[in-house]
Amino acid sequence: MCIFAKYMAKKRNLHKDSGELLMFSFQEMTGLENIEVESTEINEKEKDLSRIQKTTTNTDVDILTDEETTTLFDQERMIDEMLSAINMLDSMDSANIRLIAMETATLWHSGISLNGRYQLSALPNRHFDGYQFLALYYCSFYRAFPSMTDKLERSYERCYEEAFRRYRADEAWKRG
């Protein structure tokens, strides 16, 4: 089958739950397409993700408005949290980073609050406040899907660039 025919076949696939057209399967997005995974494992992960989505989508949770972003947003704290997220992601393999990126992106699109508390199934026993969550979302997505960074919220791009600049400076200093 030619590449274009495979592409069109994928594009026509409907997601079972939402009816959305998907370009990539869960396995392809996580880099597990060449690894056999039992459907029960995937179903358990989907249940965990839906449980987390249900607990975080309540009346307190809103997508950040432009006003909140400009008046209540602590840019220096976000840079520090992004620097911490970049350092944390350094110790992880790419498959785990992709899982974190997808889970945080899903939660981000259901709405978050900078004052909220979040937990990820990809990082059990860890809790994140809104700034830490947003930093982890942005940095993991940037690292896992560099060709799709245009999908990220542009208002945090300067924070990421500054955090990455500091990260490179720290690395250069460590090397001597």
Please characterize this protein's 3D structure:
It is built from eight helices and two strands; from the N terminus they run ααααααββαα. It is globular, with a radius of gyration of 18 Å. It is mainly α. α3 (39-56) packs parallel to α6, α5 crosses α7 (130-144) and α5 packs across α8.
Give the SSE layout:
Elements: H1 3-12, H2 26-30, H3 39-56, H4 66-71, H5 75-90, H6 94-110, E1 117-120, E2 123-129, H7 130-144, H8 157-175
Antiparallel strand pairs: 1-2
Any key phrases for this structure?
176 residues; mainly alpha; two-stranded antiparallel sheet; 8 helices; 2 strands; 60% helix; globular
Class derived from helix and strand content: mainly alpha
The fraction of residues in strands falls at 5-15%
Strand order of the largest sheet: 1-2
Query: What is the rounded distance between the termini?
Result: 53 Å
Instruction: List the helices and strands in order.
Output: HHHHHHEEHH
Portion of residues within helices: 55-70%
- Sequence stretches where pLDDT stays below 50 over 5 or more residues: 14-19, 33-40, 53-62, 66-70
Rg, Cα atoms, Å: 18 Å
What is the mean predicted local confidence, pLDDT? 75
Please report the number of helical segments. Answer: 8
How many beta-strand segments? 2
| Inertia-based shape | globular
Largest sheet: 2 strands, antiparallel
